[in-house]
Design goal:
The protein is an alpha/beta fold. It has a single domain (8-197), classed as Maf protein, CATH 3.90.950.10. It is built from five helices and seven strands. It has helices at residues 16-24, 49-64, 98-108, 174-180, 182-197, and strands at 8-11, 30-33, 68-77, 84-85, 116-127, 133-144, 160-162. Strands 1, 2, 3, 4, 5, 6 and 7 form a seven-stranded mixed sheet that branches. Helix 4 crosses helix 5 (182-197). The mean pLDDT is 90.
Length: 202
């Protein structure tokens, strides 16, 4: 008896860490990375998380001919007036890697005493090639540490400690991070929307 093929879902991101993380949140789907499927030129992102996420999902869905999920997330630091926010991936200037960006952040907070309250925010979107879409969001509160800890995760994870935990996001297991992270919460909320758009129960 042949196995029923799982529906395909594309992660509209060029970030491999993000694609793997989102893939774990959709075990009932064949989750594909955008890399190698189709050339996609995403428009420049603005200051609105939801609009950025929806635009990426729609552009990728039209380019690949498959349903796509995307997100826009950012780190909002209280002492910096909510910065870097939607511009987190470009914080500190062009050409920086993850470490360069979080080191720039630590430099900006050098004279700010703990606790340096912050939160991760994520808006997630799903879109189909015919232009239908849906959104969900999630957040994770915590604080910025004075130095990096841990080798896991990506982005600002090594310098962010979630509220109620003694370890940085980069020191948590995959399962722990998926359960409490802003991205995990946003995509958990999005799962019902994905099922509805693709005509699946649950």
């Amino acid at each position: 008896m042949s196995r029923v093929a799982r529906p395909r879902l594309v992660v509209a991101s060029q970030n491999p860490g993000k694609a793997r993380e989102i893939g774990r949140l959709f075990p009932d789907y064949e989750v594909l990375s955008l890399a190698g499927l189709a050339p996609v030129d995403f428009p420049e992102e603005g200051g609105d998380y939801a609009e950025n996420a929806r635009t990426k999902a729609l552009v990728a869905a039209r380019a690949t001919g498959l349903p796509c999920v995307a997100d826009d997330s950012g780190l909002e630091v209280e002492a910096l007036g909510g910065a870097p926010g939607p511009y987190s991936a470009r914080y500190g200037g062009p050409g920086l890697d993850d470490r360069g960006r979080y080191e720039a952040l630590l430099g900006a907070l050098r004279d700010v005493a703990p606790p340096r309250r912050a939160r991760f925010v994520c808006h997630a979107a799903v879109a189909t090639p015919d232009g239908r879409s849906a959104l969900a969001e999630g957040a994770c509160r915590g604080e910025i540490l004075e130095s990096a800890h841990g080798e896991g995760g990506f982005g600002y994870d090594p310098v962010f400690r979630p509220e109620g935990h003694q370890r940085s996001m980069a020191e948590l297991s995959r399962e722990e991070k998926d359960a409490l992270s802003h991205r995990g919460r946003a995509f958990e909320a999005l799962r019902r929307e994905v099922a509805a758009l693709l005509g699946r129960d649950g």
